[in-house]
From TrEMBL:
Region forming the signal peptide: none
EC main group: transferase
Designated name of the protein: Aspartate carbamoyltransferase
Lineage: Bacteria, Pseudomonadati, Pseudomonadota, Alphaproteobacteria, Rhodobacterales
Catalytic activity reported: carbamoyl phosphate + L-aspartate = N-carbamoyl-L-aspartate + phosphate + H(+)
Annotated binding of carbamoyl phosphate, by residue: R58, T59, R108, H136, Q139, G264, P265
Annotated GO CC locations: cytosol
Species for this entry: Palleronia abyssalis
EC number: 2.1.3.2
Family listed: Belongs to the aspartate/ornithine carbamoyltransferase superfamily. ATCase family.
Amino acid sequence: MAFRQNHLLGIEPLAPDEITTILDLAETYVDLNRGPEKHAQALKGLTQINMFFENSTRTQASFEIAGLRLGADVMNMAMQASSIKKGETLIDTALTLNAMHPDLLVVRHPHSGAVNLLAEKVNAAVLNAGDGRHEHPTQALLDALTIRRAKGRLHRLTVAICGDIAHSRVARSNIWLLGKMESRIRLVGPPTLIPSGAADWGVEVHHDMAQGLAGADVVMMLRLQRERMDGGFIPSEREYYHRYGLDAAKLGHAAPDAIVMHPGPMNRGVEIDGTIADDINRSVIQEQVEMGVAVRMAAMDLLARHRREMAA
Ligand code: ASP
């Protein structure tokens, strides 16, 4: 199997064959997760610690289930209530954890780059569960698996990533991944929410939904990340919905069999119409959540295998 990473910090360092390896292994875990007996042994005897310095519902639950299904001892550190609040530095926290000999550390942090820093200081394999606006690799992998299952491939697709690109780690990881897999990427959103250098990322930039969605195979909506905004990026939510919210009329510009995605949590009536989100013929949002568990199982399994090979 092609997988040579000590950590999963982002999509940027991965080679295309490593991405394919994760997705192929994840397929086997999709089958396991749909069966009556959901246990495998890949992480048996290993300790997984989840450290979420930022709120999360689905990602934390997904990593927890993934670890439990593979037989790991899984611990969730309540970081909001922990010594971080008492002023302990990230590095001190890492060293304390290190002394407990975890094998896998799953980390979410509000600062871009914090997870990479931590990975340099600990012995465990570190998985980035989202750092600031930098990367969210397992989200892009679960999106890729969802797209591959719906469309049968990842190359030569037109993927429109729409909305708050500026604050989105989901967008960045997806741009890396889809670019490596040779899909055509369009970023669609108001100029205030698309970083000025985006045109140099090998993507098309559109400020109009009709143009950006024209003929697209995949329409990926992003949440307006208000917690990362420090000023007036949009005139009002109503105006934003009118121009950029995905409704039936705007979706009508995409390919007739286009799928609709959203990483969650959704703001219904802001970036997406609730009826579109719930339309089982177009929306694969629930499938994304399902794929999330399988992809995280695959990623942790591969990291654990690589560690065993290196130690041998
Ligand atoms: N859940 C994703 C993230 O953590 C997307 C979002 O929050 O909008 O980045």
